[in-house]
């Protein structure tokens, strides 16, 4: 059963035809038609075009008719492969994902055009359906891409991260969150480091907006404590005659432990300190824990700040 919906497929085909623009130069676009390879060569590495039947009686196989109509005559206009049963029309998720990943192979992509913008847009379209294109290796220092299926954790965390980025509304936070989420599986130590940075940034943003001074060299746990105090996230902020005081104290104490644990993970396995050549990163599940707790804690602190700053 296909997990890529008809809506996602439609939107992907649309962006492949329209192209994605460079931020600094909207006229500079990258689309399916920006490839450095001829279509016949590109498709020949993905499909057995020497065995696939030709739709033109003059040729014995798909290679012949593709060459005739995309090189000689050039009369197959637009993204014709999306409507061709031999290629992308009604194809499996695996076929479409492999096709998309191959578009960004160093041999195929045009480095002079904003190919990474198209990659970003396609990933945004894929993620709600549980997939993404990721770097799998490098050739001559250039990234080669494949695809992977996202687990339920990643999909839920991505939604939380996206909402947090929208709440902050800054490009810096969005970039940091994208790096963090993108490195969970491939470079857990980087994701752990970025998770800690996300909490630090959240705390500093809260303190800055409330015009509360703090030392530049304030350590992570002290910074967390100061931000929590600023928004009333301490046991003392609950009325002494409230039965919620004990429970609140435990919850907020756990929040403090999250901060402390994040700091230890950063120091031991994050990317903030020099590592020896024999360094082995933690498995991705540790990064998922770090990222999940950091995102939840940051969002909780920030939402409390928003709700209480006018009171």
Shape estimate: elongated
Largest sheet: 2 strands, antiparallel
The string of secondary-structure elements, in order, is: HEEHHHHEEHHHHHH
Let me know the average pLDDT: 83
Give the proportion of residues in helices.
40-55%
The low-confidence runs, each spanning 5 or more residues with pLDDT under 50, are none
User: How many structural domains are formed by the residues?
Assistant: 2
Could you tell me the strand content as a percent range? 5-15%
Distance between the termini: 52 Å
Helix/strand/pairing class, anyone?
A: mainly alpha
Q: If you compute it from the alpha carbons, what radius of gyration comes out, rounded to the nearest whole angstrom?
A: 25 Å
Widest sheet: strand ordering: 1-2
Number of helices: 11
Give a count of the beta strands, DSSP E runs of length 2 or more. Answer: 4
What can you see in these coordinates?
With 311 residues, this protein is mostly helical. The chain folds into two domains: 6-149, no CATH class; 152-308. Helices cover 53% and strands 7% of the residues. It is built from eleven helices and four strands. The protein has helices at 6-18, 39-44, 62-72, 93-102, 115-126, 152-168, 171-182, 188-209, 220-230, 244-269, 284-308; strands at residues 20-21, 29-30, 131-139, 142-149. The chain has a two-stranded antiparallel ribbon. A two-stranded antiparallel ribbon has the order 3-4. Helix 7 runs antiparallel to helix 8. The longest helix is centred in the C-terminal third of the chain and has 26 residues, at 244-269. The model has no long low-confidence stretch (mean pLDDT 83).
